[in-house]
Amino acid sequence: VLKILLLQDADGNVSRVIRVGTRKSQLARIQTDSVVEKLKELHPDVHFEIVAMSTTGDKILDTALSKIGEKIHPSLLLDIIYVYFAQIYLPTVLPVGFTIGSVLKRENPHDAVVLHPKHKGKRLDSLANKSVVGTSSLRRAAQLKKRFPHLEFKDIRGNLNTRLKKLDEKDDFSAIILAAAGLRRMGWENRISQILGPEDCMYAVGQGALAVEVRARDQDILEMVSVLNDSDTVLRCISERAFLKHLEGGCSVPVAVYTEIKNSQLYLTGAVYSLDGSDSLKETMQTSISSDNQVEEQEKVDEKVQRVGITALKVSEAAQDAAVKLGVDLGNLLLSKGAKEILTVARQLNDAR
């Protein structure tokens, strides 16, 4: 979220100051710095000030993230730009007055297996019976329990550094599951023992994509950050968020997605799971996003152009509408087959834990 100030130097020159909010973790800073560097290249006369903030999820470390729910949105009273790692931290309905102004090119969205050093060279299927795997994600646990029934899964909280320390310095976990994107951005690719493909574990909505949140009515700021948009990533994330929103899902229920764009077709696979993975529904649908895929000029910036919280200037409106419809249609298909019942039970069991 972005606050505009004016800064005067010793020579009396006045420059614009834009405050950029981020979480306090090392990974969050690395990601925010990468966004700011891109903006600095485009706007060398602007001074960008980074402001670190704590979210509810950062402060409550003794509770599974799924039980905190969608309450980790930072205070928006600071009136600044906010950079998010993936959109799993962003509810599909944002607070009034705010919007996602840009979605950058997606890093690898898949999950990665990080092994305890003593298990180096192994994979999940070769770990011993009843080996404990750490993850704070209901989505990961539900899919992997079904795929690897010989393993046990337990919650593990903390930032990336903290989780790796818990893995390496104790014998509580044989492995942990983390987002590949975060490990790569931290420069820790060498810790990745296995990338989990969609046949093993589909990813979370928006995983791997950096999102920049701004005030919805700041047209100049929207224009500024819109150049960072990656059209394919925007369309994939819009379809994923529309799917999640239609299911009324979130991090408190196991919902997973997989998207790809081929030959001007957007493919969306979505799934819902019971907590133990024994009950699930999974379907795939596709839509055309060609519609010339051209840059469209918008005469007026208004909150009404938001699509599931995203205001993507310079991305085809027709393609965005098609992506929204795809997510809604897939959500309806799963709901018609009993998704609501599966998710209701999963939510109740999670709340009771």
Automatic annotation (TrEMBL):
The residues covered by the Porphobilinogen deaminase N-terminal domain are 18-222
Q: Which residues form the Porphobilinogen deaminase C-terminal domain?
A: 235-300
A Gene Ontology term for the protein's cellular component:
cytoplasm
Q: Which CDD domains match?
A: PBP2_HuPBGD_like
Q: Give the protein's cofactors.
A: dipyrromethane
Print the keywords alphabetically: Porphyrin biosynthesis, Transferase
* Matches recorded under SUPFAM superfamilies: Periplasmic binding protein-like II, Porphobilinogen deaminase (hydroxymethylbilane synthase), C-terminal domain
Q: What is this protein called?
A: hydroxymethylbilane synthase
Task: Report the source organism.
Answer: Cyprinus carpio carpio
